[in-house]
Amino acid sequence: MDRFSILVGDITRSDAEAIVSAANTSLLGGGGVDGAIHRAAGPALLAECRGLGGCETGRAKLTRGYNLRASYVLHTPGPIWQGGHLGESALLAACYRSCLSLAAERGIRSVDFPSISTGIYGYPLPMAATVALKAIMEFLREHDLPQRVRLVCHDEATAAVYRQTWNLWYAEDKACRM
Ligand code: AR6
What we know:
alpha/beta; Leucine Aminopeptidase, subunit E, domain 1; binds ligand AR6; single chain
């Protein structure tokens, strides 16, 4: 599937048109990738976020990227892992879909995602990878935009889990053009 790839890197340095922040529902910044994005974007990002009135888990809101290379940031609060029986997987899938729908609506051509919910929010990585890849691949099959989506993992171990999951479920997609 040449529209999708998994790589290791720092998403704050991404050249995608939009990057995704694994935010919290206040949208007022925090730790992890969200904190790194706010630091790299500068204080104007927080100022814009203050006007958004927060965001529900599984939904997404769009801002400009300010000092980032990316023109836009898609902010999405992932679910906090609570054992898996409180709708976490549906909410995590909704995060990916909401970001991709909003990007498509705005004509955004490339989106880079971090591994949402698998840091501070404690979602078990192999399960999160299955949910994330299914949501992304289904969306790409049904939509022409974004043209390019990447999963930017902060470390090789995380990327390895996403790659294994992708190979398990989607390797045949390499042969059939999407
Ligand atoms: N580039 C790419 N991935 C990164 C980067 C980076 N620069 N920095 C961290 N990661 P987390 P969550 C990875 O904890 O679990 C915040 O306080 C990290 O290794 O950032 O959704 C928010 O405000 C992990 O694989 O997000 C919320 O309160 C992944 O990003 C809460 O954390 C997600 O880890 C959200 O927790």
